[in-house]
């Protein structure tokens, strides 16, 4: 524990303050940390980075599915997809609010997203080419998100933990609506089944990448786990995701695109191929298939909304001036 504190705060063990030590002891006891309480600067910065990037992922994550709202095959599917995409906007807003309790504004976070300084989940830099992708996104992407987010309900920072409880309730509906689409497609015409398999082929490895680099290359995991900002390592969650998802693919009659996939009796889980990590880092650098399009869409939305933000500020000023005049 002290070794972790030393690493994160850049302090020698002798330099650890009584506050640093008392803080870690609170975390170890499972107490929640609340906004106005003392916290190490590294803890605050790590939370802003993770919660901010999580919020950005929810907002950017609306784009690949938003792309299909006008082309959903039935009115019912259109309503469901619209509701799901709206939920993602809500998740982004809860998370920006949680980040704001750490002393950063939503505008500051958005500026960092738009300038490329802050990341969002790599998965949203892949295109959604067919209706089957709506099934695969709900099934795999929301499935991976749930795997990561359910443990985060127990994260040490109170506002983040509470936001996750609400978000997870909605995510489970999202995952099921995706799987329902996959069931329809996989048991439909040969062409529909081919589309379902193609969606799985394209989205399998990008979904595995959502959990982050393998543990040996993860920069933040050890410290974040000591602070209970993360509850599990990247590889632990990736393994759980594969173990949960493979039987679901089998039920659909689809093939996971991994020739090395094999049940390993000894470890009680599947052996599977790692994603292409060079591709992952290229996507993080901005060179994925849709990075420019996704960021461009968010920057345009921000610029197009300037008149509305200005009008709201002008209205608030007028209201305040009227209130002063009436005193
Ligand atoms: N994509 O040290 P590591 C959703 C970065 S959205 C991009 O392991 P950490 C949904 C990482 O940030 C769900 N970047 O990092 C929405 C770090 O770079 P920086 C999104 C990634 O933070 C709409 C560097 O790589 N979920 O459900 O300990 C529709 C080294 O990695 C990725 C969350 O955000 C990636 N995949 O662990 C449908 C969950 N992976 O920051 C669905 C909360 C790693 O130093 N976040 N990087 O520049 C987390 O749990 C953790 O932040 C991660 C990464 C597991 C993602």
Q: Which assembly state applies to the chains in this document?
A: single chain
- The run of helices and strands is HHHHHHHHHHHEEHHH
Percent range for helical residues?
A: 55-70%
- The order of strands across the largest sheet is 1-2
Radius of gyration: 22 Å
Strand fraction equals under 5%
The chain-level structural class is mainly alpha
Q: Are any ligands bound, and if so which?
A: benzoyl coenzyme A
Form type: globular
Helical segment count: 14
Low-confidence spans: none
Q: Gap between N and C termini, in Å? A: 57 Å
Biggest β-sheet: count, sense, barrel? 2 strands, antiparallel
Tally of DSSP β-strands: 2
Ordered list of secondary-structure elements with their pairings:
Elements: H1 2-9, H2 18-28, H3 41-60, H4 62-66, H5 75-100, H6 106-114, H7 131-152, H8 158-186, H9 190-209, H10 221-226, H11 234-252, E1 262-264, E2 269-271, H12 277-287, H13 291-304, H14 306-326
Helix pairs in contact: 3-5, 5-8, 7-8, 7-9, 7-11, 8-9
Benzoyl coenzyme A is lined by residues 49-50, 53-54, 57-58, 61, 88, 119, 121-122, 141-142, 145, 148, 209-213, 218-221, 224, 230, 234, 284.
């Amino acid at each position: 524990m002290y070794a972790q504190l030393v690493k994160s705060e850049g302090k020698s063990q002798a330099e650890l303050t009584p506050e640093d030590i008392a803080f870690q002891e609170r975390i170890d006891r499972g107490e929640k940390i609340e906004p106005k309480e003392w916290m190490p600067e590294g803890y605050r910065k790590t939370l802003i980075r993770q919660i901010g990037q999580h919020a950005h992922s929810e907002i950017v994550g609306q784009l690949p599915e938003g792309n299909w709202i006008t082309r959903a095959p039935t009115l019912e599917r259109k309503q469901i997809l619209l509701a799901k995409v709206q939920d993602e906007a809500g998740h982004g807003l809860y998370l920006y609010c949680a980040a704001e309790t750490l002393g950063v504004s939503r505008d500051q976070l958005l500026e960092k997203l738009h300038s490329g300084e802050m990341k969002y989940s790599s998965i949203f830099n892949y295109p959604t080419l067919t209706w089957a992708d709506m099934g695969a996104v709900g099934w795999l992407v929301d499935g991976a998100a749930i795997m990561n987010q359910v443990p985060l309900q127990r994260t040490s920072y109170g506002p983040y933990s509470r936001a996750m409880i609400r978000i997870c309730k909605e995510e489970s509906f999202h995952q099921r609506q995706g799987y329902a689409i996959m069931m329809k497609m996989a048991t439909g015409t040969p062409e529909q089944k081919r589309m379902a398999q193609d969606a799985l082929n394209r989205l399998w490895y990008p979904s595995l990448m959502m959990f982050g680099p393998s543990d040996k290359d993860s920069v933040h995991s050890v410290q974040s786990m000591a602070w209970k900002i993360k509850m599990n390592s990247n590889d632990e969650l990736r393994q759980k995701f594969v173990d949960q998802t493979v039987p679901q693919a089998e039920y659909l009659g689809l093939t996971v695109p991994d020739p090395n996939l094999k049940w390993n009796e000894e470890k009680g889980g599947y052996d599977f191929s790692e994603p292409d990590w060079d591709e992952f880092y290229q996507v993080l650098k901005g060179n994925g298939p849709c990075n420019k399009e996704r960021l461009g869409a968010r920057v345009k939305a921000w610029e197009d909304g300037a008149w509305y933000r200005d009008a709201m500020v002008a209205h608030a000023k007028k209201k305040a001036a009227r209130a002063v005049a009436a005193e």
